[in-house]
Each structure stands twice: as C-alpha cells, then as structure tokens.
Amino acid sequence: MSEETKTLIVPDEIIMNQIYFIRGHKVMLDEDLARLYQITTGNLNKAVIRNIKRFPDDFMFRLTDEEFKNLLFQNGIARWGGRRQAPSAFTEQGVAMLSGVLSSNIAIAVNIQIMRIFTRMRHMLADNTDLRLEVEKIKTKLDNQDKNMEIVFRYLDELLEKQEQANPPRKRIGFKPDGF
Which pTM does this prediction carry? Predict the structure, then answer.
C-alpha cells in the first residue's frame, strides 16, 4: 500500500459512528460510504445498480420512509437533506461486496478498515455477551441465596413463636420493693 493511501485512511471513531443498527443488522448508509470512499453518492449508487446481482436483500436494502425519519430523529441533524429517496443501507457483506465494485485505492483501503471495524465490533459484542451471561449466573445465585435466607429467617421466627408458646412467661416470685 502506498504512503499516500495510508495517510488517507479515516479514524476508526468516524467509521464506528456511521454504523447503525437497522432491521437487526449493523449497516452503513450509501452517503456515508460515498463520503469515506471520496466519491459522490450518485456514483456509488450507479456502480451498485450496474452490479445489482451482487447485492441481494441481505447485503443491501433501501430504508423505508419511517426508518429514514427515525434515523434523522436519532441523529438530530438532517445530514441527508435534499434526497429524492431514502438511503440504501449496506450490511457487512454488502460493504465487502462494494470492494469488488469500486476499485480505487482509497475505496480498497477504506473497505479494509471498515471490515476490521465490523470484526472488532463482533468480538466486542461476543465479549459483552459472555459478561452478561456471567452476571446472570451471579444474579441467579444471589436470588437463590436470598430465598434460602428468607426460609431460614421464617424457620427462626417459627421456632421463637413455638418456644414462647411452650414456655409462657412465669410469674415472678420473691421480694417486691415498694412501687412495683
């Protein structure tokens, strides 16, 4: 990879902020990808249309108007203003397929970076899942301990009641000073 291409790679945080969770998939939008690849959104979409067989529904889909409105609302800024139609969303496989459609050095370098970020996110999710399972195990143990403690205290209360019933308070005998 040339020195020029290495300096063009975008910071990971920028790419990570452009990955959205839509319809149960982590996706990137056509406009964000075009900006990263340093081409126009129109040219990116034309390349996709010319190679549409490479992009089945699980690789790329068009957002519904409702999804598009929700996305604009979540971001707070209408970055995609002036569009005639809702953006296309590319899943991880769709982004990988774009590397075969767009062959510029910038597109290749950015695509490699995006694939690495998707992989890193998948590993982070797996790590979080393991942590979540461990926390659930601990919670279950604690719940069981709480229940066991309740039972122990209930038995202690019952024993105290039985002891009080079996041994009623005795009448005191002996000398009583005045006033008692």
Answer: 0.59
